[in-house]
Amino acid sequence: MSVSGEMASRGPAIQPTRSPGKTTLERVPTYRTRPFASMDLMGRTACPPYGLAVYRVAGDRLGHNWTKADRAKLETAAARFVESTDGVTPIIDVAKLAKGMAVASVIPATLLIGPLAGTTAVATATVLDAGSWKLSLGLPGRSAPQDQEERVRALLGAVNHLIGTVQADYRAVTVLVDGLDRIAREETTRELFVESTLLGSLESQATVMTGSVMLRRAGLAGRVRRFEAKVLANAPVLDLKDPTRDGSGIAFLSDVYGQRVGARGVGAFPSQLLSQVARCSGGRVREFVRMIRLVAERMWDLDEAVATQPAVDAAIDERRRLAEMGIHEGHIEVLRGVIETKTLPDSDLVPQLLDRFWLLPYPNDSEWYYPHPLLTMKRM
After folding, report:
1. What is the DSSP string of 230-268?
2. What is the pTM of this model?
3. Which of 128, 232, 251, 342 could form a disulfide with 368 if both were Cys (CB 3.0 to 4.6 A apart)?
């Protein structure tokens, strides 16, 4: 699969170690759900959103008519995780909850479920709320239920029943989960990826997810269970031996541009200017695409068909000024040290530098680091 530059730079991506059979992924419908869970999602109670998404997708896109027994199995299992505030036995209506989910069709490739990360526990209650109860997913301070608990196994079985029904009656399901890279608590990361195997027990054709950035920072990537951890760095637009020269990532991003615009659009962006934009993006695909769009907007206003040097310079300068906002002398001092060592520094400022993309990882024989090219233009 391909991943965006932002996904790659924020944390490891996780891929399954097993793949039961071959499937043509182009035949599988793709959906993306809107944020509906708390930022620090606990994996052992994360199954209801997956089940709801499968329920909704199968009904909307495949025309599947779920039976009462199908619904009851998930409703009964999920209700065991519901807290009641008025003493009334909670009742979950799967059909109603699934209908209330914001689901949008993307491209015909896979069943994509994500991002799961919202901002607070309130976001969970807003979507997964039915009167006086709410599902408590990943609330700070709460102990997570264990994988071997009967209610956890029942919930996993209910979700796998829905997945199995779709795969038996229609086609294989691949689950892609985006947003878990935003988990910032080591404790939650450990519970979700190291201590629990629940997400790796989904019986989809494959499950791929972005991993918490703490897998890298806390050295937990090698202890992930049921998944194979893949560390994805940015496209190496800088040369390791001489970062003032272009790296091999320039060609990669140029190819990304060609794939996006097709043969008719290749001539609209001279190769030299395209390489300049690729380098200044820092190897982040999302930043690269954003810069291309800025240039295109300027050329549209000028009624010109081909990108020009002034338009590219203006777009880069706009992104440079934004990138420099908030950086102080302490940040700059650490980044200057990275220029010399190309390694991750021992500094309390490192999380800020990485989260704000002021410090970027690049792949070679071993991962190396360098300040964002936009920062080296004037501030450094």
Report:
1. E-------B-SS-TTSB-THHHHHHHHHHHHH-HHHHTT
2. 0.66
3. 342
